[in-house]
């Protein structure tokens, strides 16, 4: 099992089991239970704590980039038939086998807050959506696939040949030769120290 801590930017919001939304941030989700305190009648050193029904719904906020959501699935008043999931992976883009999954059931979009429009400061336009939910569960994967890590074997400059960074070839893009590149002459025109020693 992995012992390294997770990082907070490899996450994905999955809605209705099929829409993956690119988000700027997700905040405010938590598990909270309300309790009432009953004063002890005989001994005054402590109070009794009893669980009581929830008096307000749980919410979390999703900040998404405008124009990236498919068919605007986060409309105000939308009730989701399937659980909303937040997937957290250890490596970028590896959401087929996430390390942690937050699953929210009984979700309804209750509020939309539109981003600031500012002519003097150029930023990506975002919307903040408030989602109300009934229950939240947190699941951690017991096992996960680990990507190979580059190591130096003290004999070869390429190490163990386990490259973690993706290249253009991995995306199916071949490098093209630049036809307008400058061609250097075979004979060097610049003088070096040997030319001055001969003269």
Detailed description of the structure:
Strand 1 and strand 2 (19-21) form a beta hairpin. The chain is mostly beta strands and 199 residues long. The protein contains one helix and eleven strands, in the order E-E-E-E-E-E-E-E-E-E-E-H. The protein has a five-stranded antiparallel beta sheet with strand order 2-1-7-8-11, with no helix packed on it. The model has no long low-confidence stretch (mean pLDDT 80).
Question: Which helices and strands appear, and what pairs or packs with what?
Answer:
Layout: E1 11-15, E2 19-21, E3 23-27, E4 35-39, E5 47-51, E6 58-65, E7 84-88, E8 100-105, E9 108-114, E10 126-133, E11 135-140, H1 193-198
Antiparallel strand pairs: 1-2, 1-7, 3-6, 4-5, 6-10, 7-8, 8-11, 9-10
Q: Which geometry do the CA atoms define?
A: elongated
**Helix content percent band:** under 10%
Helical segment count: 1
The neighbouring-strand order within the major sheet is 2-1-7-8-11
Q: Strand portion, in percent?
A: 25-35%
Q: Largest sheet, if any?
A: 5 strands, antiparallel
Number of strands: 11
State the secondary-structure class.
mainly beta
The overall pLDDT average reads 80
SSE pattern: EEEEEEEEEEEH
The first-to-last residue Cα distance is: 71 Å
- Uncertain ranges: none
Q: What radius of gyration results from the CA coordinates?
A: 28 Å
State the main characteristics:
mainly beta; 1 helix; 199 residues; four-stranded antiparallel β-sheet; elongated
